[in-house]
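User: Let's play a game. I give you a shape written as tokens, and you guess the letters that built it. Ready? Here's round one.
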């Protein structure tokens, strides 16, 4: 044992004696290696660019490797590199100064110079890592880790020395770069390291590049799609983004531009690999195109509705964009706002509102075939149309007006009968039944699958109001017909039957038959009295709308012709008696004056007035009223204005009217005869609204009693009370009650309070 201890002691003594010599070798190797690897010094200038550091420092590296100091040397190298970034900072500041001072054409070379110099620093400082430390490392994993550690340290130092003004300068550089078809076209051959450097720093600054591409997408969409509705734009925008292949060996489109940029770097490999790497980014670009186009089309949607059907391609694009971006709520909010501001205004004609509503229905069914958007947008239009008194009349007139969109809709072959506005119970046993969409409103079922006419009729609770208005309109058109030409009206009625049903339009059938019978009777009368210049339309009073009572006594030859016609009719139909409506009809007249002849069409009242002037040249309006038994002074004034505007009568002081036999007498007067403005007259055929108010008059006593005993009451309370207590009131609508209250309010019997209640005027 003592021998073993002695041998160990001698061995330790020998090692200690050798240690000073090894330390000297290690110190010399460390000094030589650090001097050669100092980042502040350019080893290429010292040893030449073709030199290999691993050969120059082979002995030193072997010594340090044997001593286990290679990792320490690598750590020292990274620390010295961080300290050397002060040199890079000075160079970066100098380049940025030149960039900011340069003119626009010179900015690109300035930034290229900066990026190239950064690339020089990367190459100079990475070479020792590649040639020295990776060579010394015993395993590839270790060498790869050292390269990764170096890159992280280098980029951290580089980003630390970039001043805040580098970001706007780099953004301006990328904006210039985007003007080239390919990034490589902007990189000059004198800057070989620009591409690799750009790819390196884009790891941190790629949001700037992508933000610029987003801006370019927004500008592209605005330039090519703003107020352009006649062509589809979405497909062209997607092709612009994705490219259409390769031209001149370069991929096209934004995708080709970006993938070409990344494929030019050292880390991304070929173009296919770059596209695979950037696929999520390109998906976001494509989504942004759909989002911006959807927002633009949403802003212009009201104009697209007005321009329909020319805007159909743009609507197809909007449909696709909505499916990808789901901006339905924004579309509904914007369109409702535009409709309220631009359409639902007192100055807009009811016909224009109805036409726009029809276009809205068709446009939104293109965008959303399920009809959810239409249900959400249509409510304000429907409520506003219901509040207008002439809505029904305008809709009905459009139904039989050739060339009107509603007339085309009415004549469609797949038309169905119009039903009342009632919720239909869902048939859950139907195998085709589907639940409502998640964003469907409460009234969704009412508009689901309904055509345009059905949606217009459903504005009101029942289709009966339209049938009554159809009867009024048909009566007006039939009374205006000459020579009993009924072919057009018969065809219109047959078309209306396909939508409203034969039973609902039986009254219209009777009206047409009355004119057919009138034609036959007129032939019989003129066979007896061929010289009577009168053709009568004989109607069945119970099947025609009510006529406004306007008394009129026809004088002279008009009265004689009327009496002769009545006698001839009695001879043919002895069991019937005619009741004349002298305010209706048309008289074709030829008036022979001294110096001229006037031929015109006039009403019976106008014809009666001018015939009285055949007896004497001067009349007062009061005398004319008494002579003709006319009760409405406004109607009399209009008739006198009619002849005055034609130059047949002249107005004189003291309400005198004189026959103007000679035209030159008026021309020679000091002042020209004034042109009179005709006043609006009450329609000869009583309107549906007036008739409804007249029918509701029977309930006025009940309403008066309620308001007298109970005080002011809201409309709903009055309506429900009448439903319970007033016989015959059931089936009446709130609209009819409102019309009655408005009528009696105009007569000063009731008034509406600030809270919306009604009270008796005391």
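Assistant: Ready! My guess for every position:
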């Amino acid at each position: 044992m003592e021998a073993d201890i002695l041998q160990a002691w001698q061995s330790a003594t020998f090692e200690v004696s050798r240690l000073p010599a090894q330390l000297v070798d290690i110190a010399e190797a460390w000094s030589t290696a650090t001097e050669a690897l100092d980042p502040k010094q350019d080893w290429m200038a010292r040893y030449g660019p073709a030199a290999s550091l691993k050969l120059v420092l082979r002995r030193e590296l072997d010594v340090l490797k044997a001593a286990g100091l290679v990792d320490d040397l690598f750590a020292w190298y990274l620390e010295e590199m961080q300290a050397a970034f002060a040199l890079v900072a000075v160079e970066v500041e100098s380049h940025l100064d030149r960039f900011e001072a340069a003119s626009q054409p010179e900015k690109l070379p300035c930034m290229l110079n900066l990026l190239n110099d950064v690339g020089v620093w990367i190459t100079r400082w990475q070479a020792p890592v590649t040639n020295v430390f990776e060579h010394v490392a015993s395993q590839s994993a270790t060498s790869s880790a050292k390269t990764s550690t170096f890159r992280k340290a280098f980029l951290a130092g580089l980003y630390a020395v970039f001043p805040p003004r580098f970001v706007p300068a780099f953004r301006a550089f990328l904006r210039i770069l985007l003007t080239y078809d390919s990034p490589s076209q902007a990189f000059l051959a004198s800057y070989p390291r620009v591409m690799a450097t750009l790819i390196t720093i884009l790891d941190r600054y790629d949001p700037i590049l992508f933000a610029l591409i987003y801006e370019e997408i927004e500008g592209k969409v605005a330039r090519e799609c703003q107020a352009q509705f006649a062509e589809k734009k979405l497909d062209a925008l997607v092709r612009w983004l994705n490219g259409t292949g390769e031209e001149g060996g370069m991929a096209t489109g934004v995708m080709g531009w970006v993938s070409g940029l990344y494929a030019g770097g050292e880390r991304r490999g070929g173009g296919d690999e770059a596209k695979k790497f950037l696929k999520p980014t390109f998906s976001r670009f494509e989504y942004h195109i759909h989002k911006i186009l959807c927002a633009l089309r949403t802003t212009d949607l009201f104009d697209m509705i007005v321009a329909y059907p020319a805007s159909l391609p743009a609507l197809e694009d909007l449909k696709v964009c909505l499916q990808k971006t789901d901006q339905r709520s924004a579309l509904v909010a914007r369109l409702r706002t535009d409709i309220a501001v631009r359409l639902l205004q007192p100055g807009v004609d009811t016909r224009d509102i109805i036409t726009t509503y029809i276009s809205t229905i068709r446009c939104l069914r293109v965008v959303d075939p399920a009809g959810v958007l239409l249900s959400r947008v249509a409510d304000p239009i429907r409520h506003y149309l219901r509040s207008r008194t002439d809505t029904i009349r305008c809709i009905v007139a459009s139904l039989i007006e050739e060339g009107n969109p509603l007339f085309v809709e009415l004549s469609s072959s797949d038309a169905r009968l119009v039903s009342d506005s009632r919720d239909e119970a869902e048939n859950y046993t139907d195998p085709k039944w589907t639940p409502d969409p998640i964003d469907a409103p409460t009234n969704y079922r009412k508009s689901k699958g309904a055509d345009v006419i059905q949606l217009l009729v459903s504005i009101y609770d029942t289709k009966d109001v339209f049938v009554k208005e159809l009867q009024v309109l048909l009566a007006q058109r039939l009374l205006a017909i000459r020579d009993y030409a009924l072919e057009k009206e018969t065809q219109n009625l047959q078309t209306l039957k396909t939508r409203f049903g034969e039973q609902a339009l039986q009254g219209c059938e009777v009206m047409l038959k009355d004119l057919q019978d009138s034609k036959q009777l007129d032939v019989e009368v003129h066979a007896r009295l061929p010289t009577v210049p009168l053709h009568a339309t004989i109607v069945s009073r119970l099947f025609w709308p009510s006529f406004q009572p306007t008394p009129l006594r026809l004088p002279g030859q008009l009265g004689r012709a009327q009496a002769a016609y009545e006698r001839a009719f009695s001879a043919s139909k002895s069991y019937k008696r005619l009741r004349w409506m002298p305010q209706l009809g048309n008289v074709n007249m030829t008036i022979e004056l001294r110096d001229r002849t006037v031929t015109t069409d006039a009403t019976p009242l106008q014809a009666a007035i001018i015939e009285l002037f055949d007896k004497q040249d001067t009349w007062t309006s009061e005398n004319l009223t008494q002579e003709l038994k006319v009760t409405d002074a406004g109607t009399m004034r209009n008739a006198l204005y009619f002849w005055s505007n034609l130059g047949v009568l002249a107005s004189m002081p003291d309400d005198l009217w004189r026959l103007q036999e000679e035209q030159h007498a008026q021309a020679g007067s000091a002042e020209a005869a004034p042109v009179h403005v005709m006043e609006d007259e009450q329609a000869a055929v009583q309107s549906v609204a007036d008739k409804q108010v007249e029918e509701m008059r029977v309930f006025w006593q009940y309403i008066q009693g309620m308001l007298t005993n109970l005080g002011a009451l809201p409309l709903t309370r009055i309506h429900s009370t009448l439903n319970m207590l007033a016989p015959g009131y059931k089936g009446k609508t709130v609209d009819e009650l409102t019309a009655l209250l408005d009528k009696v309010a105009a007569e000063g019997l009731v008034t509406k309070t600030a809270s919306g209640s009604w009270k008796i005027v005391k």
